[in-house]
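Holo prediction. Input below; ligand is NAP.
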Amino acid sequence: MAYFHLSFLALFVLPIFFILFLKLIVRPHPIKIPIKSRHVLITGGSSGIGLALARQAAAEGARVTILARDLNKLEEAKNSIQLSTGVEVDIVSADVCDFEAVKEAVKSVGPIDVLVCNQGVFVAQEIVNQEMKDIRSMINVNFIGTVNLVKAALPGMKNRSDRKPVSIAFMSSQAGQVGIYGYAVYSATKFGLRGLAEALQQEVIADNIYVSLIFPPETDTQSLAKAKRMMPRLTSIMAATSSTMQADEVAKKALNGIKSGSFFVFCNLEGFFLSIVTAGFSPQRSYLMAFVEVIFSGVARIAALWVQRTWYGSIEKSHAQYK
Ligand SMILES: NC(=O)c1ccc[n+]([C@@H]2O[C@H](COP(=O)([O-])OP(=O)(O)OC[C@H]3O[C@@H](n4cnc5c(N)ncnc54)[C@H](OP(=O)(O)O)[C@@H]3O)[C@@H](O)[C@H]2O)c1
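Structure of the complex:
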């Protein structure tokens, strides 16, 4: 009988108390960010994940603007969204690397409720072989471009007349949670977004602005197909640890994550595991997710060490073959 009582306590009562304790301490508080009839600006919205996001947001009743450089591609994207959803989206052309152009574009589209900084470029190659123009392009488009967008949009988002919750989302990558062979610079730009997001969330929480960081795995887009043409074999081996997704699937997860105000937005099972193992000092709005992080972080660390063992095994094997 005493054994039964102890087991009951350990299995049910203690976890419930622990969850209630987490509910008390978890910050920032849970939030919902409606997108219906609200203005969503999606950068890199003319193709791939950005286009899929724009289509879904438009289908859910948001007023969508897509931003990219190439006007022809933007027109094509606009027509394809209209064809599939019957909804018209706005387009604006700007290079995110040019702060003045970004400021002008942001001014021209009007007040923003949800800013999705999705634009990005990636070249998978060992850094020793990588050209400086590719390195600069990744840093400028992925990181500086995102800083430019935040700098340009933030004053308007802070001074909005309605005080409803609004969102700023960054499109990171699973390569922004763990370094992957061949993605040294790309990973650095996406890891950089995490630091930006964590600090920014603290700076804007008083303005009812919520930051999300989205971590897609390899996603079937034109950029991935292009990157695969020169991708080192070891990059393919390591990237295959996580399943490849379709742009529509990633867009759905991303939009749900933004609407639920999640700080970390993972897209598949491997992403869930990575979010637990890399939770660290990140903000967490869900006390249930905080519970999972606390309980499973040790096991997840062991699994991470195992994955690293297999990756380093592949590297050793590849070097031995090369020699
Ligand atoms: N595909 C994947 O496997 C994968 C995995 C994880 C994360 N991600 C991330 O997801 C995001 C979207 O990737 P994707 O594969 O969907 O790419 P994509 O199909 O190549 O789309 C990239 C978009 O960004 C725009 N863009 C590029 N440079 C720009 C610039 N300087 N200024 C403004 N817009 C610019 C492009 O339009 P213009 O060229 O006309 O400007 C295009 O609309 C990126 O941040 C990427 O790092 C992708």
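The beta strands are 39-43, 63-68, 90-93, 114-117, 166-171, 209-215, 219-220, 245-246, 264-266. That is the main takeaway for now.
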